[in-house]
Amino acid sequence: MSNRTLSMDDRLYEYMLDVSVNESELLRELREETAASVEFSVMQISPEQGQFMTLLMRLIGAKKAIELGTYTGYSSICIAEGMPDDAELICCDITEQWVAVAQKYWAKAGLQDKIDLRIRPALETLEDLLAQGRAGEFDFVFIDADKQNYQNYYELALKLLRTGGLIAIDNTLWSGAVADPDNDEPGTRAIRKMNQLLKLDTRVEKCMLPIGDGLSFAMKNF
Ligand code: CA
């Protein structure tokens, strides 16, 4: 028994996947295609994180969501599958080569009508949504794009969310580098700043889960 989160070795991790994760054939195919043919395949979220995000969408009854950093589409499929048929998921990315893979799998999964892809810097898409009067409309925002802009994404996401809406921020444990005093990489510094901001932010209720590469949550309470 333990009163702290377990560290997981490979054997225990495999066991957890075996008894808890039901990755669909389509998602497995997407994972394999990404690993085999697309650069930076470690950027894809883990299957247990994907399954958790589908469940989370159902739990919060999400109908309008935004994803910042779509890559080859794994997380967008998990988010969209947890939302009803008339839901809206706005996906933001700037790399056409990556989202071409995502688009192929959205079509295979029959999710293309739920997903609105915006290929341009995510900050511009968020500013546009605000300019269109969509503040306070969204149930969920997944922040997983360039780490340097995390704080900017966070502030805009808070404006776009309804009261009680949820932000999920990916990679907040950054392979452990955030706790390494010798690591001063720009990405590490950006994640540390985001984590500190969240720690002190009284506008939200928050929680960090050691799932995948660290996933933090902020629920808008104003
Ligand atoms: Ca990520």
What can be said about this structure in brief?
The mean pLDDT is 97.
The helical percent reads: 40-55%
Residue-averaged pLDDT, rounded? 97
Which residues sit in consecutive blocks of at least 5 with pLDDT less than 50?
none
Counting copies of identical and different chains, the oligomeric state is: single chain
How many domains is the backbone divided into? 1
Strand order of the largest sheet: 3-2-1-4-5-7-6
Amount of beta strand: 15-25%
Secondary-structure element string? HHHEHEHEHEHEHEE
Shape: globular
The named CATH superfamily: Vaccinia Virus protein VP39
CATH level-3 fold name: Rossmann fold
For the sheet with most strands, the description reads: 7 strands, mixed
Distance between the termini: 38 Å
Give a structural overview:
- The chain has about 220 residues and is an alpha/beta fold.
- It has helices at about 10-20, 25-35, 45-60, 75-80, 95-110, 120-130, 150-160, 185-200; strands spanning about 65-70, 90-95, 115-120, 140-145, 160-170, 205-210, 215-220.
- It has a seven-stranded mixed sheet with strand order 3-2-1-4-5-7-6, with helices on both faces.
- Helix 2 packs antiparallel against helix 5 (about 95-110) and helix 6 (about 120-130) runs parallel beside helix 7.
- It is globular, with a radius of gyration of 17 Å.
- The model has no long low-confidence stretch (mean pLDDT about 95).
- Bound molecules: calcium ion.
- The site of calcium ion has 4 residues, from loops.
